[in-house]
Automatic annotation (TrEMBL):
This is ACY2 Aspartoacylase. PANTHER family: ASPARTOACYLASE. It comes from Rhipidura dahli. GO terms for cellular component: cytosol. One of its GO terms (molecular function) is hydrolase activity, acting on carbon-nitrogen (but not peptide) bonds, in linear amides. InterPro entries: AspA/AstE_fam, Aste_AspA_hybrid_dom. The gene is Aspa_0. Residues 44-125 form the AstE/AspA barrel-sandwich hybrid domain. Pfam families: AstE_AspA_hybrid.
Length: 138
């Protein structure tokens, strides 16, 4: 499966559909070239590895007491450093990120995740190296 987003639930966006078509086409092009016996050299790519899901601050009754800070909203895949604004309480108090490393939040404030008690997902940026690849079919 391919998920391209974010986009609001029940909304069809042309730009997101275009991105989805492009990634599917690249995948199909790869399969075609692989089946034709093309050799792919080794490569290194940056990826984001999920570290943990982060919930909204809640009171003892499980009610949300703070929302995503405006400086974090729409900043998926951007670095979040210790001390950066994370949440904003309903009283206007800023709750900063407290971490010992830079993280890259994603799925920030997505409506589909409220019921799952997820404000965002913390990821870390890592590099993966793939060995060369060649079909054994001649």
């Amino acid at each position: 499966g391919v998920e391209v987003g974010p986009q609001p639930q029940g909304v069809a966006r042309a730009d997101v559909l275009d991105k989805m078509r492009k990634i599917v086409k690249h995948g199909l092009d790869f399969v075609q070239l692989f089946n034709e016996g093309k050799e792919f050299p080794s490569c290194t790519i940056e990826v984001f590895k999920i570290m943990e899901k982060v919930d909204y601050p809640r009171n003892k009754n499980g009610e949300i007491t703070a929302i995503i800070h405006p400086k974090l909203q729409d900043q998926d895949w951007q670095p979040l450093k210790n001390g950066d604004p994370l949440f904003l309480t309903l009283d206007g108090e800023v709750i900063p990120y407290q971490g010992n490393c830079t993280v890259y939040p994603t799925f920030i404030n997505e409506a589909a995740y409220y019921e799952k008690k997820q404000a965002f997902v913390k990821t870390e940026k890592i590099q993966l190296t793939a060995k060369h690849l060649r079909s054994s079919v001649s």
